[in-house]
């Protein structure tokens, strides 16, 4: 019986693979790939949308539809809580279309993706440091941007997150009786900022705390 089921599964796999090969599309106009990508996003199929974008990019590398497609896909992934993929699309946009006038908008979207992803990477020192640097750079380069107030808020949240992370790391070293290392991390904190806002520690459920710092 198991052999029969295995044979059926293999046969089904080959049938699906054969159908997939027959349905391979190529050599289509840029508008075709773009519209197909939008349809897949509306259907909630982001993998399909990514695939159509890949076709658009590979067949029409200089298409004026590419920049907009990147931003749309980035925002779609952000809405799906897929922040790394969202940040990837925004990064690619910034690398390839740095001369466009809407740089502040694209950079804001990248910073926003980092902010939403903060809950998943809250203990990643490099992630927090890079996010702080990007927010700081935005505020220096686009002080008059309509998105500056939002970035300023995100910048502050990341700074407070950095303070909490440093305190948590210092606590680990303190438990290991490594006082010098603990002091080093505490000295990195902006005490003026800490005193001004006096933030409450993030709430960590007891069942998470067991395996946590």
From TrEMBL:
Record-linked InterPro entries: BamD (IPR017689), BamD-like (IPR039565), TPR-like_helical_dom_sf (IPR011990)
A Pfam family cross-referenced in the UniProt record is YfiO
Q: Where is the Outer membrane lipoprotein BamD-like domain?
A: 28-182
Is Transferase among this UniProt entry's keywords?
no
Which keywords belong to this entry? Answer: Cell outer membrane, Membrane, Signal
Q: Does the keyword Signal apply?
A: yes
Q: What is this protein called?
A: Outer membrane protein assembly factor BamD
